[in-house]
Design goal:
Layout: E1 2-5, E2 8-15, E3 19-22, E4 25-28, E5 31-35, H1 44-49, E6 58-63, H2 80-94, E7 99-104, H3 106-117, E8 122-128, H4 136-147, H5 150-161, H6 167-181, H7 187-196, H8 201-208, E9 228-233, H9 241-250, E10 255-259, H10 266-269, H11 271-288
Length: about 290
Amino acid sequence: MFAQVRETTLYFDVEGAGLAERGGELVEQPVLYLLHGGPGGDHTGFRATTGPLRDVAQLVYLDHRGCGRSPAGNPDEYTLENNIEDLEALRAHLGHERIAVLGSSYGGMVALGYALRYPHRVSQLVLVCTAASFRFLADARRELAIRGTPEQIRVCERLWSGQFESLEQLKEYYRVMGPLYSLRHDPQAFERSWNLSRRSFVALNQGFGGFLRTFDYLPRLHEIRCPTLVLGAQHDWICPLPHSREIARLIPRAHLKVFRQSGHSLAADEPEAYQAALRGFLTYGATHE
């Protein structure tokens, strides 16, 4: 499905009922917006990892502008600011008064910005393997220098400089970096996932070559008051665990759960534990808000 908002077109999809039978009556389920990583990724990975939660929440998948199945536009408009405002526009378009928001990796950065700008619209916040400031870049480079192979260090040069020139180069990057992203990396599963997804190297370049070098929400995290769940991975190389710990420390009453057998692809590395954590958080929030 497509929504035309803010002079752009966004692809979105919905899974799960808005109303569900509970105790002999229909009750509203939480609405969970899912924000993908990258920049330049898409929503498709959420279908397998988070789709099973459609029995406790209505899931709204979104492809950021110029990403996934959202049509390409002006690359100069592929910004963190626009991703935040696009989320608010889609919420209004779909008529949801308040929403739960889950952001993974770069999506977590969008989610943090949204929660700070529109606090009255956020019922619950889930942050998965993300960071709250540009400082994650230096830490990721240090992790790569310690743990990376020469080939991995080589392909990351295009990431740090924001200079991917083709989808072929982007695929090579994810293929080579797969074992660092996931402790359960499977080359065949990667090929299937790549074929299902639609990636944008242009959007990735805009982020790593530009706005990700300067964004900083750390001084304002104390303003976030909604129930917040922070999921961090012990072996995350690109958003290292100290960044999840820092977010959980600075957001009042945030709850941190550390996944010890996961890399950055936490939801794929420990899917059962990931889904259990989300299910408990969404169910608790729906009955105690």
